[in-house]
Amino acid sequence: MTTPMSDAERLAQLGYKQELVRNMSFLSVFGATFSIVSLPAAAYPLIFYGLLNGGPAGILISWPVVAVPSFCIGAAMAEIVSAYPTSGGLYYWAAQLAGPKLAPVVSYFTGYFNFLGQMGLTAAASFAAAQIFAAILYVADIIPASITPTHMSYKLIVVAANAVFLIICGLCNTAGSKMLNRIGTFSSVFNVGGLIVTLVVVLAMNENRTGVGEAFGAWNNQSLFDDSYCAVISILLACFTFAGYDSAAHLAEETNNPSRNGPLSIVATLAVTFPLGWLTLMALMTAVPTDTDSLNALALTPSSTSTLVDIFFTATMGNKTATIGLSLIALISILLCTVMLVATMGRMLFAFSRDHAMPGSKYIHHLSESKKIPIRAIWFTVLCDILITLPALGTLTAFTALTSIGTVGLYISYAIPIGMR
Q: Of 14, 180, 389, 406, which is least packed with CB atoms within 10 Å of its CB?
């Protein structure tokens, strides 16, 4: 009778020795992927963009349009991660599937597109948390209404909060893989529960709801181009949400039975995100006006500086306590997402430098002696994400650029190995 191959033996078969510590379960890996592929960190910050480019109709209709191909991409990735469970993930898959001649070029480009995507996604998440934090201060009357988003004081608050949040997320990652497992497990419960609470509170407290059918028909085009173009760009909100489930691959070398738990976490994440996310968006759109002028005002000049927080305020009939409560749920969810994004990007950089594909690979490919975590890759991630958000001191539209970089980079890195397959 053949003895089943251990996780370390399977990794050795793929060409690497076991260096990281395997402490992560299915629930913690699901928590990591779901916290990244969920509404708070991706769709919430882009609601203003969606209201301007498609309106409630564009947001609600594009969700299933993007979800269906995302399921196909996720299924393909789940199959590949079951065969190649390494922290390198996408670039390693591309190398194995491309063949000896194309492997160096294909894996190189896949790795760097994945690096850019991860960096954009992580920076966008932490920056979104900083924006919601500032909006909470407005609702609580801590920041006076006279300080608008165009003031340098506001920009400094957001950029400083972003840096603090990234450092906190870096510290969480340096606590070790056992702590990361606990955070992932907690994240799985909190994120699902947080969306359900938001859904229930918004529907229960809003006495002046817009009908869901009316929301599906409320179109708004402020793109300066025709409706067909606007329809295409309206999918950014959904595309940005359904990105990042490759985290299951990057955590594979710390996951028990990754050939099973990795693929399951990807499929489970998509299966939960689609219905729960769509229902929550429908609930939020019932608190949104349907006329063009009001939609533009909500997206461009929100009273709290955050379109999402203004929606919470409207949905709770002006109840500041409830608004701050819903905003804190969103903030915590995004911070949990950022912790996992820092972990994911840190593991990706650790693996990429292990294969000598980055400048300074010898320095970056380093594990802490006591906890066996990629400490330098983690702090390199934090530093990169702080630096690329500094342009926000000039213009806060930098957030849309970060989301675009993250979305395009990740989807290109997804397409290459799947195409090779």
A: 14
